[in-house]
Specification:
Helix content is about 25%, strand content about 30%. Pfam families: HemS.
Length: about 350
């Protein structure tokens, strides 16, 4: 272990002794390192380096039984319990799990490192980007198969557990083009001619607009900026009225989706939380910079979303009414969103 790693390990141990409940992500921010850099200081002490065979590991994850999938960004945490089923790694662009409970869109080109982590009675599989950012974690629950976890750890264990780790910065986001350089009329026309919500991203790429710029330049009547506090209203109303919704949270490596009801909502400091048996959401409302109602035409009729962004214009979360291809949007969801437009 290098001197730098040893120094970091000593600092991490001292912090844990002083504050046993400190979260690794918060400690990493305090030490100005990535979460993975902190994790590798414990290799051989509960942390096992895995070969980065992500399709292999994720396919085997079904054997764990009911687990908790965790995906987060700096502003929001999405935790969903279920079984990893129906994995599809056939596309080079986006990989999928489309189970009723575990519903993921995965971008493996952003994944680089994998670890099995045993911390007290907590066991997890953890995946990171090249800069050491945590992209996705799979935690065992009391209903999981621990023997399957041990078997996965053994099957994918890297031969060299003492390898040197190199973390590299991710290329900065391209600067937004000035509006004057955008074919705004062409962009508006393309928006009104959308047939599928999945085509929206390719449309923004084609016209060279950022996500929030797209919402500003949208055709009349398709977007409306709303007060940031209304994001909480939509969750509270969906809970009160029993409206089933879809909650998308992601980072550059994955998007995790909950479909169904949200029931128990509560505040803790600046965090607004959903605390249901199989779904938890933690949203730091102080970090919301923009919130929008967004409407997209599809072959099944108009689809309405609430889209939430941070100050960099990065996506925090999206909310939809529960829907499937071929089925029109829920009227209850339309009615709920209409209350925010006033």
């Amino acid at each position: 272990m290098s001197t730098i790693v040893n120094d970091l390990k000593a600092k991490w141990e001292a912090l844990k002794a002083e504050n046993p409940h400190v979260r690794i992500r918060n400690a990493a921010a305090q030490f100005e390192v990535s979460e993975a850099e902190l994790l590798v200081t414990s290799i051989g002490e509960g942390v096992t380096v895995l070969n980065p065979d992500f399709p292999g590991i994720l396919t085997e994850a079904e054997k764990l039984g009911k687990v908790m999938a965790l995906t987060r960004n700096d502003e929001c945490v999405h935790e969903r319990k279920g079984i990893y089923q129906n994995g599809d790694f056939s596309s080079p662009h986006a990989q999928l799990f489309v189970g009723e409970d575990i519903d993921l869109r995965i971008f493996l080109n952003h994944w680089k490192f994998a670890f099995a982590v045993v911390e007290g009675d907590k066991k997890s599989l953890q995946f990171f980007g090249k800069d050491g950012l945590a992209l996705h974690k799979i935690y065992l629950t009391k209903n999981s198969d621990e023997a399957a976890f041990d078997a996965i750890t053994e099957q994918f264990k890297a031969e060299d557990q003492n390898q040197a780790f190199t973390f590299e910065a991710v290329a900065p986001k391209q600067a937004e083009k000035p509006d004057a350089e955008i074919d705004v009329e062409g962009f508006k026309k393309a928006w009104t001619e959308l047939k599928d919500t999945h085509d929206f991203f390719m449309m923004t790429r084609k016209f060279g607009v950022s996500r929030t710029q797209a919402l500003r330049l949208a055709p009349e009547g398709f977007t409306q900026k709303i007060d940031n506090s209304k994001v909480v209203n939509i969750l509270e109303e969906a809970s009160e009225k029993g409206t089933p919704i879809m909650v998308f949270v992601g980072n550059r490596g994955i998007i995790q989706i909950h479909t169904g009801n949200v029931k128990k909502t509560l505040w803790h400091q600046q965090w607004f939380n959903v605390m249901d048996p199989d779904f938890n959401l933690h949203l730091d409302v102080t970090k919301i910079a923009e919130a929008w109602i967004v409407k997209k035409p599809t072959e099944d009729g108009e689809v309405t979303a609430i889209e939430v962004f941070n100050k960099e214009g990065d996506f925090i979360a999206q909310f939809f009414g529960k829907r499937k291809p071929g089925i029109p949007e829920l009227q209850e969801w339309k009615d709920l969103v209409a209350t925010l437009e006033q």
